[in-house]
Each structure stands twice: as C-alpha cells, then as structure tokens.
Fold:
Amino acid sequence: MRIVITGTNRGIGLELVQQYAQRDDVAIFAACRHSSAELTALESNRVMIIPLEVTDTASIQQAVAQVQARVSGLDVLINNAGINPSGQQLTQIEPDTMLTVYQVNTVAPLMLTKAFWALLKNGHQPKVVNISSSMGSLTNRTYGGSYAYCASKAALNMISRGLAADLKQDGITVLALDPGWVQTDMGGQGATLTPQQSVAGILKVIDNLTAQDSGAFLRWDGSKHAW
Structure:
C-alpha cells in the first residue's frame, strides 16, 4: 500500500504514520512543514519524510515529484493538515484569519488531490480521505464562535462531495472523515479520544471503504455523520 499523509509531525497525522508503519508492505510518505523528533524516529525504508507547505504550489509540485520518484501509483491520500488558531470569536474575527484557515483547511486538500490525481489513477482501489470535523456539520452548528474553523470544514465537506463526483470515473473513492474529539494540541487533553483510539478507527474505516461510500461524511467509528 502506498500512502501520502499530510500534517504528520504531531497529533493525528503522526499517529497515522505510527499505525500504518506497523503494517507489512507499506510505503508511507509523511508530509509536513517541519519534521518532529517523534516523526524522524519513524523514518525508514518504508517511511519517507517529505517537506511540504500545503499552501505553496511549488512545494506541492516538489512533493509529488518525490513520490513519483519512488512509486508509480498512490493508493491512499490522507489530507490531514489543518489549523484552528485563536481569535475566532465574533468580537475578534478578522478577514485574514478567515482566509488563512480556509487556505490551509479547505483549498489545500483540493489542490493536493488535484496534484496527486495522476498517481491516484494508477493506485489499487485508490482513496482520498479528507480529515473533516464535527464542527463542519451545519446540522450540529447550534453554538457560536470558531467561525474560520467551522466554515473551513463545512467547505471541505462540500469539496469532498465534488471530488467524489469528479473522480468517480477514475475509480477513486473520496471521503470526508470526522476523527472525533481527540487529545491533541488542537483538541486539548479534555478530549474524549486518544490519538491511538481515533486512528485505529480511522484505519478500519479506510480499509473497509467501497465505491458506494464515495462522497460520504463518516465518523472515526464508521457511523454516518449529519451534514
């Protein structure tokens, strides 16, 4: 299995690398802006660290070239990189915050999928997994604040639907996936799931995906999420 994962230096992305690395016959391309000590310790002939700034077109092209140099196809692309900065209350929110979060959380997954499209077409039952959030659900939006993050994830869900339609002809399954509330720097230590629990569920969901699931919004445990 050939896998590209973004945002791998910590949190869910790092745990995705750790759990996939325990499998046989995998080639993992761990993409991030700057590697961490934890990620560097995982580097091997099966785990390759790739520098990637997800908002930079040249960086994306360089990452694709590095993957193409090693493999002829891609089986899984996990668009995990995301940000959720402070200053998103109604009294604080500014245009720059909205645009920056949208660029990382929404535009980048679209551009990365486009860039890896040719490799995905050569993959075995290829899948694109966009890490979304329960905070991207319109149905569940009964609270205020978090304007940039919530809007960016709702938009990512819409992009996932569009990609599912566009990539169907190539046999590529696209999923918007809520990892749950996870004990990471973003989720905080009061969250209900450990990274290990969340990622174990995520891998099971990815393993069991079929073409009929394309365009769905699922939770880490495989259940359907309200849009």
In short: The chain has a mean pLDDT of 96. The beta strands are 2-6, 27-32, 47-51, 76-79, 127-131, 173-178, 216-219.
